[in-house]
Amino acid sequence: MRFFLNLCSIILIDLMLAGDNALVIAMAVRSLPKRQRKIGSACGAGAAVALRVGLTFVAAQLLSIQFLKLAGGLLVLWIAVKVLRDASGPSEENPSPHRFLEAIWYIVFADITMSTDNILAIAGASQGNFGLILFGLAFSIPFVVLSSNLLAALMDRLPWLVYVGAAVLGKVGGDMVLTDPFVVRTLHPAVAVRYAIEAALALALFLAGFAMKKDK
Fold first, then answer.
1. Is 85 in contact with 209 (CB distance < 8 Å)?
2. Which one, of 91, 86, 100, 89, lies nearest residue 35 by Cα?
């Protein structure tokens, strides 16, 4: 019974976090041809999960690593800006292999830096059982891949969703930057200030999308 409850806890933790991760993947692979999106999202999510399995065993140290969340937050913001820029320009029928590998790199690094809290929670829920950790993380791959490809397809049909996605990534990136141990220790941002900055970033990226579209 305890094993079953721990397993359910790990699956629930993964699914709760899957929304942000799926959005990052969808934004990262959106510029790829449709036939490459599933491959890119699956490779990126699979590689990220494989790294998370190993990192779970040193989870307690992850949250104290300075600049990790700061770098991840800046990368998430960059992904949002890059997608808005790509969406405002002409689409490429055959992007270079570099674009494909770049998308996978974005997915892996963003997923790892976004998931430090999640990794710590899984480490606690598993109580050191490697099988539980592996199953719980592997369980999340199909859900994240399916969700990300669905989001990417919706963005093709409803281009304004790109702006909404960029706004959400602005909020996520801002939260990651402002909760980095170095930023917290140096600036001591109040909760109200954090929320204000996150809202400002989300609004700025949302409006930037419309501005780029208008200039197209």
1. no
2. 100
Q: What is the pLDDT of residues 167-208, one digit of tens each?
A: 988 998 999 899 898 999 999 999 999 999 999 999 999 999
- Please report, for residues 49, 79, 113, 209, the alpha-carbon distance to residue 55 in angstroms, rounded to integers and kept in the order given: 10, 24, 11, 36
Distances (CA, A) of 44 to 77, 182, 187, 189: 18, 28, 34, 33
Distance CA 71, CA 89 (A): 27
Residue with tokens 């990126």: 44
Neighbours of 94 (CB within 10 A): 6
Q: How do the domains of the chain map onto residue ranges? A: 2-215
Low-confidence ranges of the chain (pLDDT < 50): none
pTM across the whole model: 0.76
CB 43 within 8 A of CB 104: yes
Q: What HEC string does 39-75 produce?
A: HHHHHHHHHHHHHHHHHHCCHHHHCCCCCHHHHHHHH
What is the CB neighbour count within 10 angstroms for residue 154?
A: 14
pLDDT at position 182, please? 93
φ, ψ for residue 158, nearest 5 deg = -125, 85
The span from the CA of 61 to the CA of 47, in Å, is 21
